[in-house]
Design a protein that fits this description.
The chain contains 2 helices and 5 strands. The protein is α+β, with helices and mostly antiparallel strands. Strands 1-5-4-3-2 form a 5-stranded mixed sheet. A hairpin with a 2-residue loop joins strand 3 and strand 4. Helix 1 packs antiparallel against helix 2. It is globular. It starts with a strand and ends in a 12-residue tail after the last strand.
């Protein structure tokens, strides 16, 4: 059974900031990257366990996949077969802030 994928407000804000940084230099590249990040996140619906546990937190429900220089961090909920993308985090930004949540 496929998982439902949701994007948190923080993840949407991250995308907005990422694209806002790139758009002035190359709007086409920004749109392409935004679509690729969303596609990578949505691809988790079919096999969410493929992401590794986020090493900084060591909590089994927090996982991440890497796309280029970005960490797509998400929280799995096996009970209701859903996952929430909580951050799109560029690796150069250091330690990601992960909000506490269920």
């Amino acid at each position: 059974m496929d998982f439902q994928v949701f994007l948190s407000n923080d993840a949407l804000s991250d995308l907005e900031c990422i694209l806002g940084y790139i758009v002035p230099h190359n709007a086409v590249a920004a749109e392409r990257l935004g679509n690729q990040l969303l596609d990578a996140a949505l691809s988790l619906r079919t096999f969410p366990e493929r992401g590794r546990m986020v090493p900084e937190f060591r909590r089994p429900e927090l996982r991440e996949i890497i796309f280029r220089s970005y960490r797509i961090i998400y929280r799995m909920n096996n009970t209701d077969h859903s996952l929430e993308v909580i951050r799109f985090w560029h690796g150069a930004r250091g330690f990601p802030h992960i909000p506490r949540g269920g």
